[in-house]
Structure formats: C-alpha cells, structure tokens
Amino acid sequence: MSLSVDGLHVQLANKQVLKGIDFTVDLGERIAIVGPNGCGKSTLLRTISGILKPDAGDVKLDGKSLSSYPRRIRARKLGFLGQSDVAPMMTTVREHVGIGRHPHRRLFRQSLVEDEQAIHEAIQLCEVEHLIDRPVERLSGGERQRVRIATLFAQSPSMMLLDEPFTGLDIEHQYALLHLLAFMHEQGRLIMVVLHDLSTAMRFFDRVLVIQDGRLVADGPPLEVMTPDILHSVFRIEASIGHDPDSGQPLVICHGQIPKGSESASEGI
C-alpha cells in the first residue's frame, strides 16, 4: 500500500499554508515531519488524513483519490491522532478506546471478540488499565493523551499519522510511546509523526521530511537531511551533528540561535 501527495495546496483564512507539496510513502516506513512553528506540518497531516480538503492537488491511496474511499474503509487504512480532541461527555476510558473499533464494526452489530481483544491490548500497551472506569474529562493531560493514543492503536489502521503525540507526556511515557511506535512499525505499518525534537527525529525515524513556509525543502534519511546547512536555514540555529557516546546514535547539538534579521539567517528561506 502506498500513499502519495501530489501537488498539494491548502489555503486557510486567506493564507496559503501548503504550497505544492509532493512525496510518496509506503507501508513499513517510519517518517518524521519537522519544521518551524507555523510552517504547515499539522495542516499537511490533517489534509493527508482527509480532515481538510486541498485547494489543489490530491492525496491518493494506491493511486486512488483518498476522497473516493468510503469513510469506514478509509479509517481502516489510515488513522489520525490530532493535537487535541473533545471526548463525548462522561465517556469512560474503556468506552473512549472502544471508539477506535467503530470502522471495523458492522452497522447495528455488537462488539465482536476481536474488537474486545484489540481494545484490551491497546489499553495494556498504553498502560491505562488502571483508568478504564474513569471519565476521560477527569484525567490529567498526560493520562488523556495516552488514552487517545490507545484509541488509535485499537483502531489498528495500516497507516498511523500522529501530530505531536508526545505533548503532555512525561519523559518515561515519551520513550514508552517511541518504543510502541517501533512495535507498530515492525508489524508493517506506516508511521508518520509530526514532532519538534530533532534528535528524536534522527534517532528513531528512517526518513525525515522538512517543511518550511509551506514547502517540502528536504526529504530523505536523517543523516542526509539534517545537515548544518538545513539546521541553519530552516531552524535558525547554529548546530552540528554529534553521536551519543553509548549508543552511537546521531544527535543534533545546538550551539546557538541565529539572530532574527541577520543576513545569514535569511539564506535558503
């Protein structure tokens, strides 16, 4: 299964947010999307997921326009975790995670054994079993985020799109989520994540897309993409690439911020 983004243009509030983005991804890839605040990362993910409609261009699954798929079929193939959502009033954790199984259920049919198993596994994976009877609205921010992730896992789509999923998670659960995403990836899924931590993008992902001012300016393996020049021109930092002394994994080492308005900072923008 492949997903292609072809000449994507999106305008929001009279502002051109995405400006002709093109790329193709396949099952089995683990992709990080990075870029400065306001560059269009979240808009890109929301458009790929079908929440936003492009003003020009298209998103295709296996060569077929995403919009042509029935919503239920699309949700089996592609799942999206946004930055926030609103849980139905007084929905328990168990009920919220169960929402992820809706695309797999037939109309007016009760949950099947496989639905219950998927819900149970998602709750265990995200370590929220002690919360299953609590209303979601009464959870802390970090607890609520783990429940939302469990709901996506229960949905079990072939392609998982996550927009800043580490928000609200403490360091322990950030690393737990990274390992859960690796587990999902090992099962053959596509994992595509918007994030801000550049070192995490280098260490845990196989491909990095760099967005700047609504355009895709770099795309490839982390060590080929996250160069000092890109860090300089896109992220406005003086930085180099080092390596963790224990694991040998690459790290972005920031040496300082480039002052706004400096001539060097504007190069490549």
Helix segment count? 9
Please describe the biggest sheet, giving its number of strands, its sense, and whether it closes into a barrel. Answer: 6 strands, mixed
- What would the principal axes of the Cα set say about the shape? globular
The helix-strand sequence is EEEHEEHEHHHEHEHEEHHEE
Report the portion of residues in β strands: 25-35%
Strand order of the largest sheet: 6-7-8-3-9-10
Question: Structural class given helices, strands, pairing?
Answer: alpha/beta
User: What is the domain tally?
Assistant: 2
CATH second-level architecture of the largest domain:
3-Layer(aba) Sandwich
The named CATH superfamily of the largest domain: P-loop containing nucleotide triphosphate hydrolases
Low-confidence segments: 263-269
User: Given this structure, which CATH class of the largest domain is correct?
Assistant: Alpha Beta
Quick overview:
The chain is an alpha/beta fold and 269 residues long.
